[in-house]
Amino acid sequence: MEIIRSGDSVHEIDSDLIVVPVFKGETADSGVLATLDRLTEGWVRSALASGEASGERDKSALLHWRAGALARRVALFGVGDLDGSNLLALQRAGGSILLTFTSAAVKSIAFVLRGSIDSASAARAIVEGAVLSQLDYSIYRPNGPPRPKCDRFIIASERSVDGLEGAIETARILADATNFARSMGNEPANVMTPVEMARRSKEMAEREALEFEELDEDEMKRLGMGALLAVSRGSAEPARLIVLGYKPREAASSGMIALVGKGLTFDSGGISIKPAEEMDEMKFDMCGGAAVAGAMMAIARLKPKVGVLGLIASSENLPSGRAYKPGDVLRSYSGKTIEVINTDAEGRLILADAISYAIGRGATHIVDTATLTGACVVALGEVRAAVMGNNPGLVADLIKAGAECGERLWEMPLDREYGELIRSDIADMKNSGGRIASAITAAMFLKQFAGSVPWAHIDIAGTAWLTKAKPYMAKGATGFGVRTLTGFVLNRAAGRSA
Ligand code: BES
Ligand code: MN
Ligand code: ZN
After folding, report:
1. Domain end residue (candidates: 158, 190, 210)
2. Which of 31, 88, 209, 262 has the fewest CB atoms within 10 Å, counting from its CB?
């Protein structure tokens, strides 16, 4: 999809459809609505008055134009009571508009920036939503129901807006990177193995001029990554620790941010096996890793002045005669020992070794993201991800970066007492504290590997995929985290903190 900006006025815009956003309670007294009303001989006024286009979110009215303008159609699209600050609503509107109107006849759509939504960040939100809506997952059903694609999306603004072109370009980069992560996430586990995650990451790294390394199991054995390797033991698919490196031409700070992702390509639970129901969804258990790959792709293109290390711990978790077992005691890469209580608490094990590795590589700040706990889904559902950390400033910066891109985070506490739940009698800690506070105890576990390095953890178990399509996005992987992690890195490089 081509995205362009146009300074034409409505009657000059050349596209199959012009979409004009309308807010609740609007009338056609001035501005573009009045102009359009004249051009359409009173249609706008009557559509608003009759409630056909009430401004209610996702509610729209469409008119086929006979004369008076270049475009063939015009739609009034309800965006609710927007004050211009609700960027998430705009992002979703961008997606809904494309999914609602694109058809065999409508291949180019112009969106008119207007009213209070005239800023570059509004354009960014709309373009992001538009690009995100264009990804579907039909590669295994090429002859399935046809999905019309939009060829051309036009951001129309008669008035000049500072930084509009740049905002459109940034939005495109962020949404393309998010779609890259989503495509990885959507692949079934028989395709998206750890080796395949590494291959796709490498392909991306070469394209984007990032440094790439992968640690295979022999290398991990040599290093003593007993936690990651234990999880992988039961599977015939070999594990990988994927390393992506971004080094800026000139750095504004001497720090290095590590982004660490859980790339568990299939989580059966292992010997502590999961129930069959919905187990298929555990192909999405690598979405944290995919988010790191996507963020690194965006970072490579947006070039912040700070070094970033992307680490993806990738493995399967399966039961077999070789699998690790409840009761086993593991020696992690850090030297800390772990008593395995539940082999389904595997994500924290592979992340533990990746976090230690990040510290060994000189990370000064660590952010991990993972589909880590069912408890996070119970607590926050599909709306917000949980964030926890050992450094309030880091957590605040992540919440801010999330709010700026429409990925909402909610902090959960890490009081010392929660640590008692994962105390072991025979090892330094156990890998499960049971059912209570289990999103928190998972983070308490990881915290011990971060030591004194500022670290935060984002649990995306509820937000990483959609089980049902939304009006603005196909079902499947959402790419949650790509834009938060990228925005966080950009903010930090520019010295913007919460
Ligand atoms: N990948 C799962 C977490 C998960 C569950 C993500 C449902 C998305 C939806 C993770 O590896 C897991 O199994 N966690 C266990 C931990 C427990 C055994 C302490 C959980 O949350 O049940
Ligand atoms: Mn598990
Ligand atoms: Zn898992």
Report:
1. 158
2. 209
